[in-house]
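re: ur msg from earlier - yeah i can do the iron/sulfur cluster complex, just paste it... oh wait u already did. ok heres what im feeding in:
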Amino acid sequence: MSAPSDRIEILSAPPGVSLWDACLARFAAMLSGRLWDPPLWVLPDARHREAAELALLRALERPAIPLQALGTLASLAAGLRPDDPPPQVVRPTAAALILNRLLAQSAPESYRASCARPGFAPFFWTSLLEAESRGWFPAGRLPSVEGPPPPRDFVSLQARFHRALEERGQCTPGEYLRRAVVLLGVEDVPVRLPREILIGPLQQVSALEREFIAAVARRMPRVILAPAAGVSAAVLLPPGFLPEAPPGPPPDPAVPPDRVLFLRPASPEAELDAAFAAIAGWAARGQFRYGEIRLYHPAAEDELPRLLHAAARYQVPVRPAFGRPLAQFPGVVLLRKLLALFQSGWSRADVLDLLRSRALALPWKEAADMIRRVLAEPDRRTHPPGRGWIEQAEESGWRETAQALTQLQALDLRGPMDGPAFNRWVRTLADGLLARPAEPSGELADPALAAEERAAWECLGSALEEMAPCFPEAVDRSVLVSELDRAVGQAAYLPRDLRRDAVEICPAARPDHLPVPVALWLSLHSRFPAAGRVNPFLSGDPPLEYAARLRLFRQQTANAGQLLALSCPRFDDGGDELALSPFLNAFPGLAGESGARQRGADLLARAGSWRPFAEGGLKNLTRDPAGDSSGRVTRDHGLRIMRSLGGWWSPSRLESAIQCRFLHFAGFVLKLSPLADAMVEPVSPLLLGSVAHQALEEYLRRKLRGEPADPAALARDFFRRATERFDPHPEIDRAEAELVRSLAQAAELGWDRLAAGFSPRLDGEDRAALELIFGEHRALPGLDFGFGGFTAMLGGKIDRLDLGPEGRALVLEYKYRKAENESAREFFAAVRTGLQPQLPLYWMAAQRLLNLRPVALLQMYLRSGVIRGLKTAEAPADLEGREELEMEELSAEDLEAMLHATRTMLETKARAVMRGDVAPQPLDFAACGPGACDYADLCRYRERR
Ligand code: SF4
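and the outut:
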């Protein structure tokens, strides 16, 4: 037989044709001659298989095509020995149950403290899948294994898990493929392979899948391999299998989109509103049908409820292309409420929860009266549980309620039971009492809803079936209920949604090769494409690195045939500076915004509508943003960026470099979005701070001009324009209320005039600006600091300068945070030693740029109504009279030492940047970690402790 590499044909798309269409045409030709003995087309997943089926039906103009001709790598492995029944692949719900049983018997040392936590089993399961896809198995590792080996305790639990599965005639998905690799490697064992195979388009494969493809290629006379555009065929096979070849050109849309639109929304809500308003508009005008539109979102699975809600508001039908968590299915939510009621012995809170959930079909008035009565009653535990509530309903004459509760009480089986009995009991509960029957009637008006209902109940049924054999002996009911909770938490159901005219919602991290007329890519933040989160169980690189993510993104944008819409949420400093990463900077001329610095108010006024992308932008979209052709940022390129940034500094940039070099690199060099906070918090702290500054400035300006100024109304007005609010939102309402309160407090404290004889300085041509801005491209130049061999320039924005007699000045900074979060002593010490350089730098700026004589540096905490500061002996005496003031006095020597320490700090950090020094080394570990640092997920700070 010829060398394996000679048996592989690489399929690529001719110019002007998409790879998907090229594969389709080739397979249609392969298939049309011999429908009775079909070749096999291996596709990435079921979604591509479904699309291929429809496209082939159209292309071949036949009423049916052989479905066994379309498969995945897993189905190819399953068909190798058709007469030899293969083991069953374990489902995630059963995997969680088995893992919990094993951990209950004995937990490895390093997992003992955490293994009882609800998230442990699911995390371990995904880590196990990842380790096996990299080639690590208890039975031995694959030749092309990737990354460092898993830790010892991980391996021991993995081995026990495999043994437990073996006893049940099951295995993991990885083990299934590994056995197929072994089987194919034994030459004299006959296997059944189709006469010809087309594999692809494939974007990325794991080490295990590479071994499997190679094993198939060794046994077949011919395999056609279709690597995705921009991917080298060698990447899809083990090292050395094919001669190294450069990757193909990046994906080029066969028909370039006519238009590329761009949006910079201020909040996730505004983004969804703009997206669905645009979709509804296109459909209403007859430009596109819903089914011709695809929406990518990097957090589509987590954000699904919000996406569905926004779609419903605009009456846009949507079809998620991924499984939904069973725990969120309404019927299962009701069932869990019922089980919680039984578990708590009919506690008042659970009875209320059940009545409010409308799980019981009660007359509305009775339910409402009963809720009021329960609210007025103390919690009462009776025997048997629930008796007290039933008596109450009877006494009040609520017959139907009493009857429903009595029926429910009869079903409250207590005491130990085994798995099969528990299974039967839960089914009875679901069948008999809940408003939603366990077996769907199939008469629901909306067929999509009926399909969803059916899929969810089937999924719950399977979870119960899987539980039953795990508990052959009777155990306490509470054990079974919490195991069911865990199993449900691990399960996802996928309704077979056959609606063609619905917008498809796709997660952004999955390969996609299906062309579509319109693609919307939402939440394209500067973190994308970035490395994924580090696996809590495994060490080593995350499986999907930067270059692979970049290829995925290119592929997805190349799928758009006529219109591509990109949305980059604006979570940067209030929107008056576009903090774009090198990656996003690869889109030059974004909607004419790049380079054009605009005042916040202008930007707010025109936010929220889609703008056309600059002409020629699409070419640049698929160009490498920085560095080499694989999409990596090279060391040289990184150094060039660092050095180009070495010259100009700002106080906040210096503060981040003082806390940690990596924090500075991620935030100020790569300009990565503070994604974690932005996704969780509806209004980012940066945006909130910026709005507070703008509203306070406007208030003071009006006061100085003698115009009417209502701080609360101004705060509300600025806030609403900045957040582009559409609907009420509890979290956003809370943020708004706090902002209004803070500004009203500042007005009450009389912060417009702090000391007699001192008043705020107005700047600018029309003398309307309180802020003093200096630096590059500004009317006032930057401050230059010469440090033997190089010069660092400083730009900045002093929030306010209050001018007094004889050139004396107060330097003021607003902070939209609470004073209680840092002690006054620590603050004074940090300012004196250069660790908080902002105020001393502004002291120098006021002195050198305006020839002023600063006499006090004041930091005003808007959320606490506290002012902290340092002052010289020349500071006005009546500052002392303010209760909210916490001050320290500086002698002449203290002042000189403070300014010297600040200069030295700037020199040290600027030199580190010039050297390209970015290793994480935090000054304060308390400011590390998720929630405290925006880049904690990227830097592995724990390893530095
Ligand atoms: S978590 Fe700590 S070490 Fe990591 S970037 Fe942030 S400050 Fe630096």
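cool cool. The first strand starts at residue 8 and ends at 10. ping me if u need the other ligands too
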